[in-house]
Structures are given as C-alpha cells and as structure tokens.
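Reminder to self: tokens first, then the designed residues, so the page reads top to bottom the way the pipeline ran.
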C-alpha cells in the first residue's frame, strides 16, 4: 500500500513529493522453522524473504528544484523501518538493520 501527496509547492520552481508505503510479507512463517533457515545476509537485502508476520514501512521525500529552464536538481531522502517477527526468526533477525536510510542526489538536463 502506498499513499502519495504529489507536487507540493510553496516557492516557485521548488516542489516536493511525499510518499508513505507499508508492506506485509507473503511467505509462510512456518517455512523458516521447518527448513531451519537463517535469515538471509545483509548482502541478500532485507526483502529477500518476508513472512506474513513481517512488515516494513517507508517514508520518502523527493524535492525538485528547477535551477534553469532545462536543468533540475532532485534530492530523494527515505527512511525504511523493517520489523521482523521474533517468533519466526528466533533472534536471527538481529543480524539485519531495522532502520534503513537512503539519500540520493541527481541533476536532470532536459533538451
């Protein structure tokens, strides 16, 4: 589920997009126990295997500033919270980051 407020603007040539996303895993919480599965490593990524008892939410802000007619700078900042179930993963989830951040900067030239 994602909710978005688009094109928030209070100053000329400056706009924002605000997003909130929430997701629930779709895999069986019994599978990791039956397979004696440890949680995937950090290199696999936190969404490698999410069960129906695991959740994550994200808050994302994108800021666009039009520097010139054809040149725009974009700043993207996000926070993602990963909530893994203790009963399913039995402490193995502690190897994962619960708080995740992302910041990106891009210049776009349109001609």
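Designed residues (111 positions):
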């Amino acid at each position: 589920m994602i909710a978005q407020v688009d094109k928030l603007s209070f100053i000329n040539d400056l706009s924002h997009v605000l997003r909130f996303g929430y997701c629930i895993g779709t895999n069986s919480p019994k599978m990791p126990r039956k397979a004696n599965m440890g949680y995937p490593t950090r290199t696999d990524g936190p969404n490698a295997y999410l069960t129906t008892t695991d959740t994550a939410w994200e808050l994302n802000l994108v800021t666009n500033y039009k520097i010139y007619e054809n040149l725009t700078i974009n700043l993207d900042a996000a926070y993602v919270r990963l909530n893994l179930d203790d009963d399913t993963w039995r402490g193995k989830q502690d190897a994962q980051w619960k708080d995740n951040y992302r910041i990106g900067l891009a210049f776009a030239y349109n001609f």
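The chain has one domain: 2-109.
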